[in-house]
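User: Please fill in residues for this 471-position structure.
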C-alpha cells in the first residue's frame, strides 16, 4: 500500500476494527490490572524502521489494537487512583470518536460553525453546572495547565493595562515584576503557566505552608500598594483541601487585585450541597481554571478557562494582523482568538454529549458517590491497625501511610516509598506517593465514573498485602 488515495472506498474498514475491539476492551476494564507487567514486551512490535511501503489502514490498525489493548495503562478503569485521573463516560467516548470522524477545526465560525456553536452551548452549560454567571467568557483548552495559562495570560494583560502598557503588543521588557501571591497549595502547573508567560515560575510569593495565610497576604498587598494577582486553590492534590476562596475574593476586592482560582478538579465540589460551601465566593473570582479530563470523565485533552471579563480573552489571545485570518471582533472569528491554540479539535463534542446524556443530576450523583467512596476508604484505613490516615477527607482524596507496629518513625518514609513502588510494580491497582506534612504518604484520588466500593476494597487489600511484604 502506498498513496492513501487507494483506500478511499475502504475508509471505514479501519474504524470497523476499532469498533470490534471496543466492546471486549471496555468489558475488560472492570477486572483488568492497571498494568500487566508482561505487556511491556509487546511494545517493540511498534518499533522498527519507517516502512517504505505501508501495510494499509485496516491491517495497521489491527496491529495497533493488538499491542494497545494489551499494553495500555488501564487509567480509564475503576482502579487507577494515581494523580487525579478520570475515565471516559460512554457518551463522551462516542462523541470523541465523532469529533475525529468529523475532523472539525474549532478555530473559528468560518472553519466550523457547528464546532463553534457547540462550544458556545458547552461553555454556557459548564457555567450553569458550577453556578457561575452566564455573562462570563471562556474557552475550551487542552488541560488545566492551559487553563491556568489562559487565565494568567488574561491577568497579565490586565496587569499591564493597569501600568499603562499593552503587554500583548509590547511584551514585559522594562516592567517591574508582576506580583503573584498564593498559598502553599499552589499547583506546579500554575507556576509552569507563569514560566511560559515570561514571569518566571519563581515569581509566586507563597503565604502559608498549606492553606493560604490571608492575614500575611493582606499585609503584603498593603505594602505593595500596586496591582497584583492572587491565585486561590480550590482542591489541592495531596488531600483535597481548599483555600478560603471567599476570603481571597474579599482581599482581591479590597486591594483591586486579580483573583484566579485553580479548580482543576475541586470546582466539582460545587455540584453537591454537601461540598458546595468549599467553593463559596468563587463567582467573585476574575478567572477559573478547571479540567474536563478529570472529574468530568471526558477523554484527554480537555480543560476549560472561565474569565469574568469576556473582552479580556480576546485582548490577550487575539491574533490581529494576518490578512487571511479573521481578526478580533470579526463575526467569522471564534474561540481560537480566546485562547492559546489556533487550529484545535472540536473538544466541545464529548463535553456536550456527556452533559446531555447524564445531566446535572447525573453528575451530582456521581460526585456524591465519589465523596461516599472517599469516606469509605478513610474508614477502611482507620480500621486497619497498620495504616494511618494523615489528613481529613473533605473531597475525593485520602492521604495516608503505612505505619506497622514495631517500625521506628525514622524508617517510615523509606518503607512507604517502597510500598508506593511495589504498588506500581504489582499493577493490580495504582496510587501515587507524595510528601504530606513532611511524611511520605499515599494519596489515592477517586474521580472515575466506574469506581465502586468493591474497587476501593480491592485497593485496601492490595495495600495491606504489600505492606506486610515490605516490612
Ligand atoms: C491536575 C491539576 C492541574 C493540571 O492539570 P492538567 O490537566 O494535567 O494540565 C492543575 N491544577 C490542579 C489543582 C490539578 O489537580
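Assistant: Residues filled in for all 471 positions:
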Amino acid at each position: 500500500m502506498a498513496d492513501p488515495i487507494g483506500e478511499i472506498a475502504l475508509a471505514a474498514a479501519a474504524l470497523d476494527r476499532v469498533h470490534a475491539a471496543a466492546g471486549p476492551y471496555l468489558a475488560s476494564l472492570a477486572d483488568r490490572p492497571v498494568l500487566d507487567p508482561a505487556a511491556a514486551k509487546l511494545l517493540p512490535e511498534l518499533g522498527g524502521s519507517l516502512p517504505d511501503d505501508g501495510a494499509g489502514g485496516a491491517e495497521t490498525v489491527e496491529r495497533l489494537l493488538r499491542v494497545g489493548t494489551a499494553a495500555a495503562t488501564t487509567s480509564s478503569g475503576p482502579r487507577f487512583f494515581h494523580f487525579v485521573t478520570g475515565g471516559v463516560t460512554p457518551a463522551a467516548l462516542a462523541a470523541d470518536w465523532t469529533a475525529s470522524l468529523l475532523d472539525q477545526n474549532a478555530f473559528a465560525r468560518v472553519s466550523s460553525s457547528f464546532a463553534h456553536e457547540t462550544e458556545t452551548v458547552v461553555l454556557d452549560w459548564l457555567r450553569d453546572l458550577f453556578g457561575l454567571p452566564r455573562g462570563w467568557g471562556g474557552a475550551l483548552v487542552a488541560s488545566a495547565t492551559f487553563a491556568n495559562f489562559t487565565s494568567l495570560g488574561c491577568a497579565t494583560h490586565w496587569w499591564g493595562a493597569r501600568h499603562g502598557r499593552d503587554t500583548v503588543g509590547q511584551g514585559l521588557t522594562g516592567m517591574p515584576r508582576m506580583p503573584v501571591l498564593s498559598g502553599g497549595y499552589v499547583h506546579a502547573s500554575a507556576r509552569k503557566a507563569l514560566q511560559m508567560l515570561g514571569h518566571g515560575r519563581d515569581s509566586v510569593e507563597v503565604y502559608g505552608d498549606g492553606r493560604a495565610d490571608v492575614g500575611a497576604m493582606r499585609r503584603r498587598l498593603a505594602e505593595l500598594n500596586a496591582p497584583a494577582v492572587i491565585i486561590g486553590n480550590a482542591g489541592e492534590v495531596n488531600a483535597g483541601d481548599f483555600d478560603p476562596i471567599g476570603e481571597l475574593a474579599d482581599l482581591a476586592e479590597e486591594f483591586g487585585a486579580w483573583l484566579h482560582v485553580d479548580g482543576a478538579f475541586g470546582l466539582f465540589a460545587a455540584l453537591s450541597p454537601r461540598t458546595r460551601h468549599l467553593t463559596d465566593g468563587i463567582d467573585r473570582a476574575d478567572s477559573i481554571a478547571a479540567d474536563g479530563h478529570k472529574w468530568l470523565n471526558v477523554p484527554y485533552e480537555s480543560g476549560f478557562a472561565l474569565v469574568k471579563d469576556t473582552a479580556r480573552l480576546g485582548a490577550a489571545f487575539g491574533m490581529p494582523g494576518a490578512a487571511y485570518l479573521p481578526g478580533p471582533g470579526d463575526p467569522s472569528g471564534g474561540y481560537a482568538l480566546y485562547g492559546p491554540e489556533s487550529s484545535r479539535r472540536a473538544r466541545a463534542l464529548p463535553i456536550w454529549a456527556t452533559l446531555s446524556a447524564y445531566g446535572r443530576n447525573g453528575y451530582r450523583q456521581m460526585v456524591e458517590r465519589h465523596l461516599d467512596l472517599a469516606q469509605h476508604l478513610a474508614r477502611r484505613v482507620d480500621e486497619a491497625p497498620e495504616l494511618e490516615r494523615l489528613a481529613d477527607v473533605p473531597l475525593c482524596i485520602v492521604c495516608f501511610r503505612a505505619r506497622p507496629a514495631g517500625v521506628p518513625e525514622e524508617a517510615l518514609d523509606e518503607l512507604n516509598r517502597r510500598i508506593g513502588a511495589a504498588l506500581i510494580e504489582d499493577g493490580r491497582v495504582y496510587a501515587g506517593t507524595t510528601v504530606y506534612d513532611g511524611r511520605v504518604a499515599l494519596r489515592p484520588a477517586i474521580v472515575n465514573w466506574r469506581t465502586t466500593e468493591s474497587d476501593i476494597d480491592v485497593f485496601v487489600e492490595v495495600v495491606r498485602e504489600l505492606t506486610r511484604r515490605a516490612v
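For context: The mean pLDDT is 96.
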